[in-house]
Design a protein that fits this description.
This protein is mainly α. Helices cover 50% and strands 3% of the residues. A two-stranded antiparallel ribbon has the order 1-2. α2 packs antiparallel against α3.
């Protein structure tokens, strides 16, 4: 059937600009193109801010405790083979950095909740 056209979806086109002809040739398949949105999830995605706030609070406390514990261990450790003062100081710094990230996340969450960007819990 020469001239037969197939219906293509939005954002889909053939692998080749023409349909090959001759023995052993096949018609190219339709493939989705990158960058074409399918569905509504990217537009309507919402984070569960209450759960994220709970996790940030838990990890903030955990990392603050870790910072204190490793700082005390660094103060009490003697120089010599690992684990020594330097190892505990690095672990205290890593815990402090993660505590800072958790605190920053809590401020972002607070702003988003104040702006009303949380998950809509009403049934529609």
């Amino acid at each position: 059937m020469a001239g037969r056209r197939t219906r293509r979806g939005a954002g889909e086109h053939h692998d080749f600009p023409h349909t090959p002809s001759g023995p052993g040739r096949t018609t190219p398949e339709l493939r989705p193109q990158p960058g074409v949105r399918r569905g509504t999830e990217p537009v309507n995605a919402r984070t569960d801010l209450e759960l994220r706030r709970l996790l940030s609070r838990i990890f903030l406390m955990l990392f603050l405790c870790g910072t204190v514990v490793f700082a005390v261990l660094a103060a009490l450790a003697a120089p010599g083979p690992p684990p020594n003062r330097g190892v505990y100081a690095v672990l205290a710094a890593v815990c402090a950095a993660f505590a800072g990230i958790s605190a920053f996340d809590l401020t972002v969450i607070r702003r988003r909740l104040a702006a009303g960007q949380g998950r809509d819990t009403r049934r529609r």
